[in-house]
From TrEMBL:
It holds the Pfam family MoCF_biosynth. It is an enzyme of class 2 (transferase). CDD domains: MogA_MoaB (cd00886). It comes from Comamonas jiangduensis. It catalyses: molybdopterin + ATP + H(+) = adenylyl-molybdopterin + diphosphate. This is Molybdopterin adenylyltransferase. The lineage of its organism: Bacteria, Pseudomonadati, Pseudomonadota, Betaproteobacteria, Burkholderiales. Keywords: Molybdenum cofactor biosynthesis, Nucleotidyltransferase, Transferase. GO terms for molecular function: molybdopterin adenylyltransferase activity.
């Protein structure tokens, strides 16, 4: 079997208070922990902790795309508060919008909290990078990426990450492989790479 492709992933925590040191940031550790458990590929993380400033967020996303991140996950700043501008900053750097990710995240999150409808999270493609907004609550990161399982581990609602590897195939990125006990990635049969001797 050939070794899995290496992948560069940008992780961006967007929080006025965590970036100012008012509380310890839990967004970057939660993103890094979940991705390290879910992916079999060697990952190079590009972490950023920034305030809720639209221009800073857009600039950070552009820098991460330019540096070769195939995937960029943000957390925070998706709600209705005046300072919440992550979706606007993300749409400002988009080549294409991918509405299915936001729709599915709100569906998943509604199984956990009724206020899920307050999250305006979006996902976009820029060049060969997929950028996805996640809500700011640290526990929402695993919930939206992984979905909801019953106590036996049976998937009740698909998390959004199941669709991420194939999306990255389609934009010319590395072939992502997942640990199916954390996240069962879905690809059409014709897109599944046959193991090489
Ligand atoms: N990066 C983070 N690290 C730890 N906890 C966070 C983080 N971001 C959000 N939270 C927690 O989730 C709650 C809701 O997140 P939200 O993004 O709405 O924060 P906020 O009120 O906009 O403030 P801030 O931008 O200063 O984090 C916060 O009150 C906080 O308890
Ligand atoms: N899975 C999940 N989604 C969630 C939440 C949560 O606790 N868990 N919080 C909601 C709330 S209260 C808000 S205001 C919005 C936006 O949060 P953000 O501004 O931190 O991104 O996400 C929503 N989505």
């Amino acid at each position: 079997m050939s070794a899995p492709d290496a992948v560069k992933i940008g992780i961006v925590s967007i929080s006025d208070r965590a970036s100012a040191g008012v509380y310890a940031d839990q967004g970057l550790p939660a993103l890094q922990d979940w991705l390290s458990r879910a992916l079999l590929n060697p990952i190079h993380f590009e972490p950023r902790l920034i305030a809720d400033e639209q221009s800073t967020i857009s600039q950070t996303l552009l820098e991460l795309v330019d540096t070769g991140c195939s995937l960029v996950l943000t957390t925070g700043g998706t709600g209705p508060a005046l300072r919440d501008v992550t979706p606007e900053a993300t749409l400002a750097v988009a080549d294409k919008e991918m509405p299915g990710f936001g729709e599915q995240m709100r569906q998943i999150s509604l199984k956990f909290v009724p206020t899920a409808i307050l999250s305006r999270q979006v996902a976009v493609i820029r060049g060969s990078s997929l950028i996805i907004n996640l809500p700011g609550q640290p526990k929402a990161i695993a919930q939206t990426l992984e979905g909801l399982k019953d106590p036996q581990g049976q998937q009740l609602v698909n998390g959004i990450f199941a669709a991420v590897p194939y999306c990255i195939d389609l934009i010319g990125g590395p072939y992502l492989e997942t640990d199916s006990t954390v996240c069962q990635a879905f690809r059409p049969k014709s897109a599944i790479r046959t193991p090489q001797a």
